[in-house]
Amino acid sequence: MPGTAIIFVDMQYDFTRSGGACYAPRSSVRFVRDHLIPYIKRADVPALQIVSDYRQPRPGDPRDCCRPVEWGYTSEIPKEILSGPDLIKCMNSPIWTREGIGDAGKHPGLPYQDPATFDVWIDENLSMKGIGTIILSGLTLDACVLCAAQELSFRGFTVLTLEEGTDVRSGRLEDRTRMLRTPPFSHWSGTISFAGLRELFD
User: Fold this and answer.
1) Positions in the chain short of pLDDT 50
2) DSSP assignment of the chain, as one string?
3) Are 7 and 153 spatial neighbours (Cβ–Cβ below 8 Å)?
4) Fewer CB atoms inside 10 A, N or C side of the chain?
5) What pLDDT is attached to residue 2?
6) Phi/psi of residue 162, nearest 5 degrees
């Protein structure tokens, strides 16, 4: 459907694969790999991704993961299906960046808010291409997907979250279902099923 794109959030090995620093079994990961990615390739759906550089220092979060160049930083999303450059963040919200972000050869600075960089990424890869509706897929509903939904909604996009394509930290389906349909998440995003997504693009 013209005017619609998918944004993947934090589909990196540290979150998605056994042995990852923040791994938990989540059904959405297999769904994205086995069903969503092949569909995007066939249907030529516009897709972008937001990834994380979670090296320390990160005040308020002691985790040190998603280190550039290392295994855990690798994304499940193949570059060939993406229609623009990655946005790299260093906290849950996509407006947070820092010096040296995404560069393994640089010591990362302290996180700071940089909404202007996020706005430029949106303008160049979404707004200027006539995209007004965003479908979110990724990890996790109770952290980074929630923050992405907020920021995109605040900027006037219609935001939908793919039910089969995301999960909460716990990985429990009942937790995912409850969060998708209740505040605060439902303030900033509606939901869409994979069948509904295919109806938009087929």
Assistant:
1) none
2) -TTEEEEEE--BHHHHSTT-TT----HHHHHIIIIIHHHHHHHT--EEEEEE-BPSP-TT----B--TTSGGG-BSS-GGG-SSPPEEESSSSTTEE-TTTT-TTS-----EE-HHHHHHHHHHHTGGGT--EEEEEEE-TTTHHHHHHHHHHHTT-EEEEEEEEEE-TT--HHHHHHHHHSTTHHHH-EEE-HHHHHHHH-
3) no
4) C
5) 67
6) -75, 115
Dihedral angle computed from the Cα positions of residues 7, 183, 181 and 23, in that order, rounded to the nearest 10 degrees:
50
Q: Tokens in use for 93?
A: 């919200």
Q: What are phi and psi of 73, to 5 degrees?
A: -80, -20
**Bridge partners, residue 138, by sequence:** 9, 166
Tell me which residue of 77, 98, 108 sits closest to 12, measured CA to CA.
77
Q: How many CB atoms lie within 10 A of CB 97?
A: 24
- Kindly report the CATH class assigned to 4-201: alpha beta
Domain boundaries, the chain: 4-201
Query: According to the model, what pLDDT value does residue 1 have?
Result: 58
Query: 10 has which bridge partners?
Result: none
N-to-C CA span, the chain: 8
User: What pLDDT was estimated at residue 138?
Assistant: 98
Assess whether the previous peptide bond of 78 is cis (omega < 30° from 0): no
Residue 87: exposure state from Cβ atoms within 10 A (0-12, 13-18, ≥19): buried
